[in-house]
Amino acid sequence: MDVGYATARSRLLSLATKDLNVLTPLLDARFICGMSILYSELMSKLKEKVIRKNSGRILEQLVAYTRGRHTNTGFGLSLEPNLKEGQGGLRDYHTML
């Protein structure tokens, strides 16, 4: 049995609604090559069905994730600061975008 694009898309959107680890790469997705119509449809459905309906919850999850990451990596005096996960690092920059 083949899984059609519409079925795969609805499953992906359903997962993105429930799991921040699925949603964040989709938010950063860019079209490179292939069928741009499929990409455009996916992005418009993502905005319509996931982001607009769940924006408050998504922001709360991002803030909770960021605070937890800061707790784990800290902001103390370290010989090698964590430029990716630490406070003010790359992950914070991506979250702001």
Q: Could you characterize what this model shows?
A:
This protein has helices at about 5-20, 20-25, 35-75, 90-95. It is mostly helical and about 100 residues long. Helix 1 (about 5-20) crosses helix 2 (about 20-25) and helix 1 (about 5-20) packs parallel to helix 3. The chain is elongated and about 50 Å long. The mean pLDDT is about 85.
The overall strand count is: 0
Q: If helices are DSSP runs of H or I spanning 4 or more residues, what is the number of helices?
A: 4
Beta-sheet strand percentage?
A: under 5%
The major pleated sheet works out as: none
Oligomer: single chain
Taken in chain order, the helices and strands follow as: HHHH
Instruction: Identify the overall geometry.
Output: elongated
As a percent range, the share of helical residues equals 55-70%
Low-confidence stretches: none
**Helices and strands: which structural class?**
mainly alpha
Distance between the termini: 40 Å
Mean pLDDT: 83
Q: Nearest-angstrom radius of gyration?
A: 17 Å
Topology:
Elements: H1 5-18, H2 20-27, H3 36-73, H4 90-96
Give a brief description.
The chain is mainly α. The chain contains four helices and no strands.
